[in-house]
Amino acid sequence: MAYLKGFIELLYLMALLGLAMYGFSNAITVFIYWRTKKRSPQPSPIQEWPLVTVQLPIFNERYTVERLLKSVLSLDYPKDKLQIQVLDDSTDDTSSLLKRLVKQYQKEGFQIEYLHRNNRQGFKAGALSEGLKTARGEYIAIFDADFIPPRDWLKKTVVYFHNPKLACLQTRWGHTNADYNLFTRAQSLGIDGHFIVEQTARSRAGLFLNFNGTAGIWRRSAIEDAGGWQPDTLTEDLDLSYRVQLKGWQIDYLPDVVVPAELPVQIEAFKKQQFRWAKGSFQVVRKLFFQLLTTPMPETKRVMGLIHITGYFVHPLMLIAFLLILPIGLLSPHFLRMFPWTMISAFGPPLLYLVSQTETNPRFTDRLRLLPILILIGFGLSLNNALAVFEGLTRKETGSFNRTPKFNVTAENKNWLQAKYVSQISRLVWVEFGLSLYGLLSMIILYHHLGWGAIPWLSIYVASYGFIATMNLVQNWQTSRYKATQYSTV
Questions:
Q1: Contact by Cβ (8 Å): 146, 262
Q2: Which of 250, 278, 288, 356 could form a disulfide with 388 if both were Cys (CB 3.0 to 4.6 A apart)?
Q3: What is the model's pTM?
Q4: What is the pLDDT of residues 212-245, one digit of tens each?
Q5: Would you state the pLDDT for residue 483?
């Protein structure tokens, strides 16, 4: 019994220290942002525009591809210097729609080509790699299907590649449907925290940062020098970003160049997206960890890189701390006295989101009102993402690339329930409900033993798991009801 008690105490203490470390790193990031946000890379005049290939990786995106092609073909860039590749892995009628659109634009004189694969080998990395075989551009721009690049995007980005060590330039994600509901507004705050604060701080301080898979432009020679797109992780963007930087190349970021995109409106699709990102990031950790440890570089950059690449590990730590608080409260209540000082570091993540001011959400009060919902989402995802981290670390196979379905949700087109790509609900929802009940039971037991000490902490978990699971079931009921109504009218 003494050994078990000691093990639980050690595990709980490690979870708290780990959470404190990641929370403190967020506070450091905010400090770096405040100190360096006025620094920015400088463009250089171009005498002759370089040849650019725009790659559009697509898989079953019937609702957004027309908008995507229209925006890309509207780019203010010389036609003879712009090659567009439609990299289609679709298995539905998206392919026939794309073929028709590409033929139409070819007749209008655009250098656009349609490349279709009969398999999804390597998923997005495989499609991008296949496209490089016929790409003619010195630079490669990439846009996912739901992104809408503004007309001047290319001219605002290629002017920075006068720096011969610049491998990639990432631009900021905007939001086409942030005001759809409370869930999308909270998501927009989370994404703005990453793109406004974190990416800016890392870029300006010369730290590791990552290409986010879309809305960025690459120097082709840098891709090839780092070994190209590789399909052994689900986050090919993070993988290539680190391989490039470990080879001595640089990645930079432009927070003032914004590309609007669609936020997931379905909680199940959002959870699958987060699962893919978390699992893929730890596949990259497993792949590059020792190289990151041994490659010569400043120690500050190395440490911040390790924290960055392992960022999703905060979710297993959150889950462990939650599950252990009941046995700790019963077996070693003195350990709960450590809680107040660890809470100091918990102010790091909220601070990061609160300072992420944008032109569309400038008021502090607006961000403050969204923060509780973002906290519920973050805590509620801890089970989902903890499982993803475990898979990323332990399973050798890459796994399936489950893309995030987009429905072209706008103020005029809000009904996504009839869309073809609605994700099926996972059984994980019942485990989330179970965790919410476990937290409620823990609150009751610990209140009788210790009073109010642990109640605020546990109440966040209870509300978070309950929120995520309830929202998931409600949306699933709505889609089932819609399908039943449609069936009954046929």
A1: yes
A2: 278
A3: 0.93
A4: 999 999 999 999 999 999 999 999 999 999 999 9
A5: 61
Phi and psi at residue 71, to the nearest 5°: -70, -40
Phi, psi of 139 (to 5 degrees): -125, 150
Question: Is-contact 62 96, C-beta < 8 A?
Answer: no
Identify the active-site residue in 89, 144, 192, 252. Answer: 89
Tell me whether residue 93 is one of the annotated catalytic residues.
no
Is 171:258 a contact under the CB 8 Å cutoff? yes
Closest CA to 236 of 171, 278, 280: 280
- Each domain of the chain, given as residue ranges in start order, spans 1-37+161-405+416-490
**Residue 438 has what pLDDT?**
97
3-class SS string, the chain: CHHHHHHHHHHHHHHHHHHHHHHHHHHHHHHHHHHHCCCCCCCCCCCCCCCEEEEEEECCCCCCHHHHHHHHHCCCCCHHHEEEEEEECCCCCHHHHHHHHHHHHHHCCCCEEEEECCCCCCHHHHHHHHHHCCCCCCEEEECCCCCCCCCCHHHHHHHHCCCCCEEEEEEEEEECCCCCCHHHHHHHHHHHHHHHHHHHHHHHCCCCCCCCCCCEEEEHHHHHHCCCCCCCCCCHHHHHHHHHHHCCCEEEEEEEEEEEECCCCCHHHHHHHHHHHHHHHHHHHHHHHHHHHHCCCCHHHHHHHHHHHCHHHHHHHHHHHHHHHHHHHHHCHHHHHHHHHHHHHHHHHHHHHHCCCCCCCCCHHHHHHHHHHHHHHHHHCHHHHHHHHHHHHHCCCCCCCCCCCCCCCCCCCCCCCCCCCCCCCCCHHHHHHHHHHHHHHHHHHHHHHHCCCCHHHHHHHHHHHHHHHHHHHHHHHHHHHHHHHHHHCC
To the query of whether residue 237 is one of the catalytic residues in this protein, the response is yes
Residue 400 φ/ψ, nearest 5 degrees: -90, 140
Quote the pLDDT of residue 488: 47
Instruction: Spell 207-230 as b/e; 16+ CB within 10 A means b.
Output: bbbbbbbbbbbbbbebbeebeebb
Catalytic: which of 88, 146, 192, 237?
237
Number of residues that this document lists for the chain: 490
pLDDT of residue 490: 44
d(CA 147, CA 89): 18
Residue ranges of the chain whose pLDDT lies below 70: 337-345, 362, 410-415, 417-419, 482-490
